[in-house]
Design goal:
The chain has three domains: 19-105; 107-214, Monooxygenase (Up-down Bundle); 238-546, no CATH class. The termini are far apart. The chain has 26 helices and two strands. Strands 1-2 form a two-stranded parallel ribbon. The chain is globular and about 80 Å long. The protein has helices at residues 2-16, 26-42, 49-67, 76-105, 107-110, 115-124, 131-151, 160-184, 189-214, 237-246, 253-277, 284-292, 301-318, 326-331, 339-342, 365-374, 377-381, 384-387, 392-399, 411-427, 434-458, 464-475, 479-491, 498-518, 524-532, 539-546, and strands at 333-336, 353-356. Helix 3 runs antiparallel to helix 4 (76-105), helix 4 packs across helix 8 (160-184) and helix 22 crosses helix 23 (479-491). The protein has 563 residues and is an all-alpha fold.
Length: 563
């Protein structure tokens, strides 16, 4: 029996390959994820001192456990996992320290409802509460908060970050209050009789107070509406540098803008070639306008996207660029993006579900035309592989099947990989003529523009309206689509580095391709399959694994990938 078990293990090992086996850090990662989940569910109320203290100790404990592991004896993959987990623990501790600092600074504004936390602690274990005392307590808190609201005008203004922190703490107090009420309501008749009205009144007052705190921002730091209606939160150069280091990007914001401008110059030259080939001379906007007019009739966009997908898949297979699992090819599907969502997502989105942006009958006439023009077949052909295969759909498919314990999500891998395919297919003559080239160049300029406008915005140099105008004038965006792009960048649920991650991550994968494929060390298929089997992580760590790079415990990013 033991021999059979050993035989099956060996067969399984060599069938799947060593690259797919868990690393030496795997047991700690599994325990960490489970323990964190347990604590997140128990200490679910955000912003409490109790939660901060517990998680501060939790991350310190796991950092100690990690540091006790025999790093020097690990495989390269194990060393990468060590470095990535160390990065997570240290970053979380830093975020908790920042939260502690901000919570202390606004404690005078937020402490009135802190007694709710003690009631919630009793609720967790189901202790019987004296309902009349709880009602009195909630009523007293309500009066205190009302008094604070009346005095709020006399309090000094705070930064936007502190105002948001204060409002977030109040939101946590409301969550604790709701947890208490929902637990006892209906099950304890005395509780319902006594507490219902005090609970409702306090919750309402806390909502008003949180909204008032959000406006308690010093005029010098208050994000202003420049007429675009888009109000974001520029984070500044220091925070940009911190986040770039966290994502293992060893360039400054200014260096990244310079890189984007160099790529933009390349796009300009290629765009003029395509424009001349179409007979428009150097008037590339006229050539682009001709391409935009190729949009398909209403109701026919989904079928047109299927045709583009079929062309893309056929190209990937013909050139044997990567392994395409049959179930991945079988199970993707479509949905139409609702009109309201198109205000933020004016182009299609991808993954297992291809989400198509195209006009509906409820849109204004001009909005319909802009959506159709911006989603013409030549523009869409340039990115269908980005959204489906070999981009986001295949990424998600493989992430669910290989090294699933690696939770190192980063847009530089996710968006960088999908963008990389646009670079590769251009090199391999995927565009069939100048119209396709203009479509691909539109998106390439778009990604360069994302680096330029997002960094200039967060550096405090550009306003949202300047970003919109830049997209219209330099890339050829429809104005409504440009507004949607900028709104998505600064008001949707995306991190400050997300938009620059497309082209930057794409350059990283492109540089790694040069190092491994162009040198003859790997075929395209071997390279692409190997990347997808390692799961998501900063691209510099992918490089470390594929090149078997020597690593140290205190690894610092240093890979200058742009040449």
């Amino acid at each position: 029996m033991r021999a059979l078990t050993l035989f099956l293990f060996v067969v399984t090992f060599y069938s799947f390959g060593q690259t797919e086996m868990p690393s030496e850090v795997y047991p700690l990662i599994v325990q960490y994820e489970a323990d964190r989940g347990s604590l997140e569910r128990f200490y679910f109320v955000q912003g409490t001192q109790e939660r901060r203290d517990r998680f501060n100790q939790f991350y310190k404990d796991y950092l100690t456990r990690l540091q006790q592991l025999p790093f020097e004896s690990f495989s390269t993959g194990g060393k990468v996992d060590y470095i990535m987990m160390k990065r997570i623990f240290e970053n979380e501790l830093g975020l908790l320290a920042q939260e502690e600092k901000e919570a202390t600074q606004v404690s005078k504004l937020t402490a009135y409802a802190n007694p709710v936390y003690e009631i919630e602690k009793k609720r967790r274990r189901g202790l019987h509460l004296k309902s009349d005392e709880v009602a009195q307590q909630l009523n007293d808190i309500k009066k205190s908060v009302q008094g604070a609201m009346q005095k709020l005008a006399q309090e000094p203004n705070v930064t936007a970050a502190l105002a948001n922190r204060a409002a977030s703490i109040i939101g946590g107090q409301q969550a604790a209050l709701k947890s208490v009420y929902d637990f006892y309501e209906g099950y304890d008749p005395q509780f319902t009789w006594w507490v219902k009205r005090p609970y409702q009144q306090l919750d309402s007052v806390l909502t008003k107070y949180a909204n008032a705190l959000k406006t308690k921002i010093d005029s010098a730091t208050r994000p202003k509406d420049d007429g675009s209606g888009i109000i974001g939160n520029p984070i500044g150069r220091d925070e940009l540098l911190r986040l770039l280091q966290l994502e293992m990007i060893p360039y400054s914001p200014e260096e990244l803008v310079n890189i984007a401008n160099k790529e933009f110059a390349w796009c300009d030259a290629e765009l003029l070639k395509a424009s001349r080939e179409m007979g428009f001379g150097d008037n590339w906007k006229a050539a682009q306008e001709k391409v935009k007019q190729s949009y398909v009739p209403e109701g026919q966009q989904p079928e047109a996207m299927l045709k583009l997908y079929d062309e893309s898949i056929a190209f990937l297979k013909k050139n044997d660029l990567l392994t395409i699992p049959p179930i991945a090819e079988e199970t993707w599907r479509m949905r139409m993006i609702p009109p309201r969502q198109q205000l933020i997502s004016p182009f299609f989105l991808g993954g297992e579900v291809l989400q198509i942006s195209y006009p509906t009958d409820a849109m204004d006439h001009e909005a319909k035309l802009m959506s159709m023009r911006g989603n013409n077949p030549h523009f869409s052909r340039a990115t269908v592989h980005h959204e489906l295969i070999a981009g986001h759909h295949l990424q998600g498919f493989m992430n669910n099947r290989y090294k699933t314990y690696r939770h190192y999500r980063t847009p530089f891998w996710t968006e960088g990989w999908a963008l990389y395919w646009e670079l590769i297919l251009w090199d391999m003559n995927f565009p069939r003529g100048p119209e396709d080239k203009i479509g691909m160049l539109f998106w390439r300029m778009h990604r360069c523009a994302r680096i330029i406008f997002s960094l200039n915005y967060h550096l405090g140099k550009w306003t949202p309206q300047q970003c919109i105008d830049f997209l219209v004038d330099r890339v050829g965006f429809e104005r409504a689509n440009a507004e949607g792009e900028v709104r998505r960048s600064f008001t949707a649920n995306y991190g400050p580095l997300y938009q620059l991650a497309y082209m930057t991550g794409g350059f990283q994968f492109y540089a790694l391709k040069k190092e491994l494929v162009d040198s003859g060390k790997m075929t395209y298929k071997q390279f692409h399959d190997a990347v997808l089997r390692e799961n998501s992580m900063p691209v510099e760590m992918v490089r470390a694994i594929l090149t078997n790079q020597p690593l140290t415990r205190d690894f610092k990013t240093s890979w200058k990938f742009y040449k």
